[in-house]
Design goal:
The structure holds two protein chains of two kinds. By secondary structure, chain A is an alpha+beta fold. Chain A is 32% helix and 29% strand. Chain A is globular, with a radius of gyration of 17 Å. In chain B, helix 5 links the parallel strand 5 and strand 6. Chain B starts with a strand and ends with a helix. Classes of the chains: A alpha+beta, B alpha/beta.
Chain lengths: 136, 188
């Protein structure tokens, strides 16, 4: 069974980076997939990778993660979709109000998430079945 | 000026760094191989001077270990490594990733080397480029391995439209002159 743990924005936005990343790593090391409301900053993503590397063992092989940002500019067939001025203005205000709250970050153990396939139009989360002990 | 070579494992960072060093210094910077995480320590070559269209550029090359979010020693067993060597390689690789990230603070411009046969929308690529953008470090993306049939430069161009992208084959030397020209534009 795969377990997801949702961490709402209000629960992690007030935390220092260190505490936030420790919280994420703790959940992931407990073989659960974190659904974090919002996005990490680039430096936090880099620190998450560093922290992951520090705790890799024979059993814990690392993480897979990705960010879903619904307001990212979409490009179709190599052509950038032009936004009208009003949409850009609306997006600007939205960004000021929402900050890094928009989007969702998925972080899971590499032993469970086999692969995250991401392209502009879709995200596929390919999981492995957790190892089960055989009954004697 | 320090020119960093960043990217995921097996993208061809060391192959490209070797090509540049051989072209202008006559010696290699490190060992490149098909095994992932061959470079597990930051390697540096100082005082590399390149010339293109009568202009000269002097810099230090910083070749970094590939950045990954997972390292499984069992992956190395597939390459016929002993269990002991695979475990040791995995441990060194984790330290290498940490060093690569720490070195982001010491580079002035970066060549992000991506394997053009792979999906560019990986979180590692996004994190590397996001960190460089946040630090205002000039970036040139190299779509490597264009000699391979599965190579898709367009996909990389679509993924990172705001950056200059140059298709090359570091192994075969294809596109290397255009690469040098772009390098001058990057650090002008």
């Amino acid at each position: 069974m795969i377990t997801f743990q949702y961490i709402p924005y209000r629960e992690h936005s007030g935390l220092e980076t260190e505490a936030k990343l420790n919280r994420i790593i703790d959940v992931v090391m407990d073989e659960r997939i974190v659904l974090l409301e919002g996005r990490l900053r680039p430096d936090e993503e880099a620190q998450l990778i560093e922290k992951t590397m520090e705790v890799i063992t024979k059993k814990f092989k690392g993480i897979s993660f990705c960010t879903i940002n619904p307001n990212q500019t979409q490009r179709k067939n190599g052509k950038k979709k032009e936004d009208p001025f009003s949409t850009k203005l609306k997006d600007g205000f939205y960004k000021i109000l929402m900050g890094r709250r928009e989007g969702l970050t998925i972080i899971g153990p590499a032993t469970i998430i086999k692969e995250i396939r991401k392209d502009p139009s879709k995200i596929e989360l390919l999981t492995k079945a957790p190892r089960r002990r055989r009954k004697k | 000026m320090s020119l960093g070579f960043y990217g995921p494992p097996n993208a061809g960072k060391t192959t490209l760094a070797n090509k540049i060093c051989m072209d202008w210094l006559g010696e290699e910077i490190g060992v490149a191989s098909h095994l992932p995480h061959e470079t597990r320590e930051v390697q540096m070559k100082e005082g590399v001077e390149i010339e293109s269209d009568g202009k000269k550029l002097n810099f230090n090359i910083v070749d970094t270990p590939g950045i990954a979010t997972k390292i499984d020693y069992e992956d190395f067993l597939k390459f016929k490594l002993s269990k002991k060597k695979a475990k040791s390689r995995a441990k060194e690789a984790t330290k290498g990733v940490i060093d690569s990230i720490k070195w982001l603070d010491n580079v002035d411009a970066v060549i992000v080397v991506l394997d053009s046969t792979q999906n560019p929308y990986s979180q590692v690529n996004i994190t590397i480029i996001g960190n460089l953008a946040a630090r205002n470090i000039p970036v040139l993306i190299v779509a490597n391995k264009v000699d391979l049939k599965k190579s898709k430069i367009k996909k990389i161009e679509n993924a990172f439209p705001q950056y200059p992208i140059i298709g090359i084959s570091a192994k075969k030397g294809k596109g290397i002159d255009e690469f040098y020209k772009e390098l001058f534009k990057l650090v002008k």
